[in-house]
Amino acid sequence: MAVSIVQESSSISRCGYDVFLSFRGVDTRKNFTDHLYMTLVNVGIHTFRDDDEIERGEKIRDEIERAIYESKISIIIFSKNYASSTWCLNELVKIMEHRKFSKHIVLPIFYDVNPSQVKEQTGSFAEAFARHEESFKSEMDVVQRWRAALREVAVLGGMFLEDRYEWQFIQDIIKQVQNKLHHPTLYVPPCVVGIDSLVTCINSWLGDGSNKVGIATICGIGGIGKTTIAKVVYNLNIQRFERYSFLADVREVTQERNGLVRLQRQLISDILKGKVNKIHNSDDGITKIKEAICRRRVLLVLDDVDDSEKITELIGAQIPFHPGSKIIITSRHQCLLSDPFIIQMFDLEASSSYGDLCKVFEVKELAFNESFQLFNWYAFGQNDPIDNYMKYARSVVKHCGGLPLALQILGSSLSGKSINVWKSALEKLKAIPDSKIQKILRISYDSLQDDHDKNLFLDIACVFIGKDKDYTTTILDGCDYYTAIGIENLINRSLLVVNEKNKLMMHQMIRDMGRNIICQESPDLGKRSRLWHKDAFDALRAKIGTKTIKCLTIDLQRLLKDKYAKTATNYSKNPFLVSNEHFLPNLKILNLSHSHALLKILNLSGLYRLERLMLKDCIKLIEVDQSIGDIKTLTVLNLKGCKSLKKLPRTIGSLKSLGELILSGCSTLGDVPRDLQNLKSLRVLNLDGTAICESNSWLSWLSLKRSKELSFFWASLPCSLVKLSLESCRLSDDVMPTDLSYLPSLKSLNLSRNPIHSLPESIIRLTKLDELLLTCCKELQWLPKLPTSGLRVIMSQSLHKISSLPCLLNFKRCIVFGCDKLSEVEGVFKLEPIENFEGEHIKSLFNVDSIGSNKLQIYNYLTDTKMVATPQVFHDSGITSCFAFGSEVPILFEYRSEGSKISFSLSKNSSEKVSWLNLCIVYSLVSDEIFEFLPSVHLVNETKQLVWSYFSSFIGISETNSNTILWLIHWPVKDYQLDNGDLVSLSTSGFNVREFGVTCVSETKVMYEDDTPQYSQETEYIWRGIELKVNEELLKLGSSGNIKVQIYNELEESKMIASPKVLYDCGIISIFDTYDCGYNHAVGNKVSFVVARSSGQHISYLNLVVVLLAEDDKIFDFLSHIEIVNETKDSKWIHHKRFIGIPKARNNIYWFSLWRFMGELEDGDQVSCTVFSDLCVKGCTFDLKHEPYDNLLHKHPSDYQHLRDKTISSYWLFPFFLYHLFRSQRTLYRIQSLNKLE
């Protein structure tokens, strides 16, 4: 996703218009005229449309008059209120005068009036002129000119809407205009939706103003609209090129006799404008094509190409394209243009860079609202369905899955039909796919290279949709498939996709096409090669299976709900599973989950190739046979929810390949074999909800271990463990080890819902740990210093953020929600009663004795809990604070101010360097929203433009909103850049502040020793800025709860430095409301600035943050783009990004991007950044970075490392991500807590 450079051609900007539209905006602007205008533009007809939003004045009047004179045709749309607009009538007079003295063509369109009303000025026209004659009594000559123009235009003849659908009427208008213009444009359907953003991208590529040859592929599944987009782009851009040619249906035509030569003849004719000598054969055609295209800048479109060899056969290799020529290919094959093909086609060296030469534009399915609009046009001839048809229209649109072809075919077939026909059609569609759609979709299947890929496609379509890719590969590899390369081929043919969760997904109509191929094999179920769900069960029940059946799958859970439930249950009543040496020797996966009647697993020794044994929710299973130890290939054993299982076989220690052992929910399991430590490959061990800490055998073993001064069973766990879960195991301090260094590889540790009071200090030795879950540990009081993630801490010179939250989340996830008694996390925060606190800097601020007995409610953001206690002192990221009841700032504070902001100048006495700030904030709570945002205090050095922000992890809660509370803060600022005489301001956010007080404390004023421990992370606050490796850090998180991370990192694609270029962008998508961020902030979608030169430096990087808001939960798939314009030099750069949000949620997005410039922005340039999106753009923020001019000389790959240090605007991206991650996890915790109560 590289940045596109758009520089409008001067020849285009100077040319006139093909069509001038005259219309009454209130009548037709947002419906008929808009549809007509878009259709005209899509077929390449250059059209002028006035915009009512432009302020009326002399400038726009002159522009419209000039547009009329420069247009070839004027289309006048007469509607009921046309004559009420003096503006429209004046336009009409100008048009008719221009017609008298030129060859200007006038085409009247009678939308909802007839010619006689216009000619005689009757009806609404008469009413309008009555008003005009009243208003223009002194200028009746003007009124008479209007009447004469109307009479003149009415007799010209025109076009009438009558009873036709609007889209049919528009299509007739287009034909008339094209005939009058003799315009060589291609036919485009009148109803085209959802393509604007992609067309804009391709137009930007075509109009980049460079002399480079380029080739692009427009790819996607059949019927997705590739050809339509190619036609629109072709129509819009032919004027940019000297010659142009559109070769349609290349795949189909080349299969016909002499089809290749016919295409060559058409191409040469288009390039030479009809001058074609006889072509003897395809080789002769290639020679003539090369001669024709080498002298001219051409636009060539090859439609529906299924094989790159067809391109070579058509136009040859080592093609001498004229500089600036562009080739567009539409294909179902994503990787049609391979590296060797490009090198051969353009005669490049193998080592040459051709990244900028090749582009791929993938066409995605339409969003639901776009699909709905397109379907309605074909079914009803308008944007909205007829009321009684709404439910059925939505069902059809949902069935089509955003495929334009299906929407068009089904919409047209149902147009004008009764509701009963619609109902019947819907029922038929569920059972039998539409034949026209299937015929087009099947082309992709038929084009697969061999039977291997075809059979793989059919297996996936029938069985493996929605399944994990690795899981599927394991199974199909065992069936003699070459699965990895096969899946890649299907993806390249747009038949299959792998989503962000590694699941195999397929468009439902592609799936139906594959399953329909199987259904056509035979009307007899037993003679089909693959059976699924109900058909599979019917075949088993009727005992009609044959050797033809290669694959069979049954959804037992679904069957239990349908009419076969009773029969299905009878099949699972056998309490034993017996295996012997002759039973399924090649079986790799055995899934018997939810077999509620299964009691025992007997002899398994014959399954010597088994890799996965799934026994989830076998609630009566009491025993697994000792023979399981013979399965040396077993990697996963899942016994989750086996409530009756009391012990595991001793031989489990022999499973050398076992990587996952899932025992969660085995509530009676009290004995885990001591040989567990022999499982050297074990990485995941889940013991949630087991009874391992309560059994007699366990306690006796524990006693034996302790007698030898060894700790718990942890010492016997394999050191290979990466994830260990012991949630709800009733672990107490007695059974917790003192040394956790036995598990050096551990990355995730879950100890939630256990009655532990603390963790051993040795946890800091688990240097790889990045997830610690302690949810609802109700007795937890203290945590030692936790290991960090190793993220490199850097200092930002312009913005510091101080908070416990990133310290606690420093290694991604330390979850302590519901830990009511937690009072200290070493190095992060600590709270203690004020009467136990020894530091004088808090006690000196008010009378401690007077408040000692007053209890106050405190909310802890980190634990999501509330406590009622006497005033507590909080040590939070090096800052000490306290909450107490009070209504005013104590008199001893040096500066006082009403409201949430206070400003003052620091003392100019050089001997009084400020070391601390004592703050007193009198506030009340406005609403419960305070619990959604961390309360904050912002310290700003206005003189040096530096900002420090403190986010508190605690807030005092008043009994009512009218009660006030004092928030007292002792803030060390000795190391801050606060110098004598600087202007300083403090402000707060998140609550209603009544009064603000500040005292500056310098070293000369300190009258006591302060030995209070400072609770900071080695004095380097994590939130001061963290350099992230985008691909290694954020991408690991992917999505969590109610947030998603969507990242594009250009540096990972190419180490070559181009300019300007978007080096990375990142979208943090959440369901939470956004809030203002940063400085240089602009409300709305545009921010402007003037470049100011820094001595010896130039602007090298522009950081941009965009805040996007969804107005409802209907849109979650949308495209946005950023335009940066150097208005001084008339240069424009565009960057697009497609966001896939959270379905059925109100998406809110922070979009971060970093732009690399190398001299394009100079001193004095006026620059603007504008954001366009389907969502509401709340605002955007920018930050400019400079670097020495010397760096402009280093434009080679060695600069790659130099750029990596600037890849992330650290003080923006990471804090926002952590905050949203925290809120997401808290929301998830609350939902789970509610579920447990239910």
From TrEMBL:
Top EC category: hydrolase
GO biological process: defense response; signal transduction
Domain TIR: 15-181
Superkingdom, natural source: Eukaryota
TM annotation in the entry: none
A molecular-function term among this protein's GO annotations: ADP binding
Keywords assigned: Hydrolase, Leucine-rich repeat, NAD, Repeat
PANTHER family: LEUCINE-RICH REPEAT-CONTAINING PROTEIN, TMV RESISTANCE PROTEIN N-LIKE
Name of the protein in question: ADP-ribosyl cyclase/cyclic ADP-ribose hydrolase
